């Protein structure tokens, strides 16, 4: 589980790290949104707990926050559920499910 509560194993970008078919789907999706000259080797992610060599969203503010605070997941932070994670959780149904997962894991 990512610090934000997302399950990396469900993520096509995470799967693309080792699955060429998943990588092709991600590239096709990016190209359908106007991206050009995509380096296939740049598609993938070792997950938030990974070593950072390949991370889809290394500029993620939640990831930065958990690393700064030295916690693995937001629910283990003394400030959980902060405004940042709640705002993120309200952004989409997938994020709302992840926030609910965090709340459940922290109880």
Keywords:
single chain; 107 residues; 5 helices; 0% strand; elongated
Number of domains: 1
Oligomer: single chain
Strand content: under 5%
Major beta sheet summary: none
| Tally of individual helices | 5
Gap between N and C termini: 16 Å
Structural class: mainly alpha
Low-confidence stretches: none
Report Rg.
Answer: 15 Å
Count every beta strand, where a strand is a DSSP E run of 2 or more residues.
Answer: 0
* Average of the residue pLDDT scores: 87
Structure description:
This protein is mainly alpha-helical and 107 residues long. The protein has helices spanning 12-16, 20-32, 61-69, 83-89, 93-105. It is built from five helices and no strands. The radius of gyration is 15 Å and the shape is elongated.
Short description:
This protein is mainly α and 107 residues long.
List the helices and strands and how they pair.
Blueprint: H1 12-16, H2 20-32, H3 61-69, H4 83-89, H5 93-105
Helix pairs in contact: 4-5
């Amino acid at each position: 589980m990512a610090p934000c509560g997302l399950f990396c194993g469900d993520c096509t970008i995470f799967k693309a790290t080792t699955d060429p078919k998943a990588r092709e789907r991600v590239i096709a999706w990016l190209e359908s949104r106007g991206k050009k000259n995509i380096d296939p080797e740049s598609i993938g992610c070792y997950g938030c707990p990974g070593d950072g060599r390949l991370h889809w969203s290394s500029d993620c503010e939640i990831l930065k926050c958990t690393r700064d605070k030295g916690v693995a997941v937001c629910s283990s932070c003394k400030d959980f559920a902060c405004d940042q994670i709640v705002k993120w959780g309200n952004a989409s149904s997938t994020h709302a499910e992840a926030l609910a997962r965090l709340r459940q894991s922290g109880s």
